[in-house]
Design goal:
Pfam families: TrmO_N. This protein has 375 residues and is α+β, with helices and mostly antiparallel strands. Strands 1-2-7-6-3-8 form a 6-stranded antiparallel beta barrel. It has a 4-stranded mixed beta sheet with strand order 9-12-11-10. A two-stranded antiparallel ribbon has the order 4-5. A hairpin with a 2-residue loop joins strand 10 and strand 11. The protein is elongated.
């Protein structure tokens, strides 16, 4: 009897434990099922929200595109009378600090003077330094800029019927002959925008250092783009024969006076702090490279060497006594022009003469009194 009671007690305990285990298992399974259902529900809600956001973004983009198309159509229509609305709001993003203080002497094309240096100082309020990251990996870059020193800029604000932009311009390689403005790189254009290429030397914060430039000091820059040889250099590209006449713009030789080096050394004490060059010797090489090309205007080159002319300083050689004085000059007798020309580099005035055979004689260098200051 006692044994039977003991067996029944053992069975009851086992049954209770089994029941508890089954209840616990079913409870956990129900909980897991509920949790999985909640997760699936949340996933469906997020998917629906994402789909709705994408549809809304696409609709907004299409709306912007339609609005922009409508605006361009309205502005280009015949009934548009506000000329200012027909222009695009563009402002310079950088200013050029160049070795060329004035237009006179600035190379006619890029890379002709390898030692011609400049720094592009970007407006940090509009262009973060991070914008220049990666540009140092390119050897050259394109620069889009404004011909801000043109003497005919006031024409831009006149109605097209009164602007009187010249369709043809005089070309140096044609000895003053005229060519359509769009067949040239003349700065005097309906829109005075220039395009040049330069060698990338270094990037220092918000400053881009360049060489081989043909940019005058203070030039406003609109954009900078990397030079891509695979598409920017066109294999088999051709040009008219008159463009190939480089010999018309080269000089026979560049010669320095005996006292030039000492004069340069004296001037260097004032120019050194702001100079883009490390020494007077390097600066003298720059002068030689610049003057290796005839930087005179067409009228200056075609002017007879013994003909009365206006000098660069403003005085006029127009009477017999003055002309006789020039003719007594030893250099004049040797074929040099009576006119002294001036090249201003980094605020230093380089005076030189050139003879009828294209030999340049650099006479002196002084601190210029009318240089353009970069603000």
């Amino acid at each position: 009897m006692a044994a039977s009671k003991s067996q029944w007690l053992t069975f009851s305990i086992i049954l209770a434990l089994a029941s508890t285990a089954i209840s616990f298992y079913l409870s956990r399974r129900k909980t897991k099922s509920k949790s999985r259902g909640e997760v699936n529900k949340k996933i469906h809600e997020l998917e629906a929200s994402l789909k709705s956001a994408l549809e809304k973004c696409a609709a907004e983009r299409q709306g912007r595109i339609r609005a922009q198309q409508a605006l361009r159509k309205a502005l280009s229509g015949p009934n548009s009378v506000n000329l200012e609305l027909n222009s695009y709001p563009m402002a310079p993003i950088a200013i050029v600090h160049s070795c060329f203080s004035t237009r006179n002497g600035t190379p006619r094309q890029p890379l002709l003077v390898p030692l011609a240096r400049a720094s592009l100082i970007f407006d940090s309020s509009r262009v973060p330094p991070a914008s220049l990251e990666g540009l140092e990996g390119y050897s050259h870059c394109w620069i889009i800029y404004v011909f801000h020193l043109n003497t005919d800029l006031e024409k831009l604000w006149k109605p097209s019927s009164q602007s009187k932009f010249k369709a043809k311009v005089r070309v140096p390689r044609l000895k003053g002959g005229k060519m359509g403005v769009f067949a040239t790189r003349s700065p005097h254009r309906p829109c005075p925008i220039g395009l040049t290429v330069a060698k990338v030397e270094a990037i220092r914060g918000h400053i881009l250092l360049l060489s081989g430039v043909d940019l005058v000091d203070g030039t406003p820059v609109l954009d900078v783009k990397p030079y891509l040889p695979y598409c920017d250099s066109i294999l088999g590209a051709t040009v008219p024969d008159w463009v190939k006449e480089d010999r018309l713009l080269t000089v026979a030789s560049v010669n320095f006076s005996e006292g030039f080096s000492s004069s340069l050394a004296d001037c260097w004490t004032m120019a050194e702090k702001k100079s883009l060059y490390a020494s007077p010797n390097e600066f003298e090489i720059l002068i030689r490279q610049v003057l290796s090309w005839d930087i005179r205007s067409i009228s200056q080159r075609s002017r007879p060497h013994d003909f009365p002319v206006h000098t660069e300083t403003g005085s006029t050689v127009d009477d017999a006594s003055t002309l006789e004085h020039y003719q007594e000059d030893e250099a004049f007798e040797n074929g040099f022009s009576a006119v002294i020309y001036h090249l201003i580099l980094e605020g230093l005035d380089v005076s030189y003469r050139i003879d009828s055979k294209g030999n340049v004689f650099v006479e002196n260098i002084t601190v210029s009194s009318h240089t353009q200051t970069l603000s």
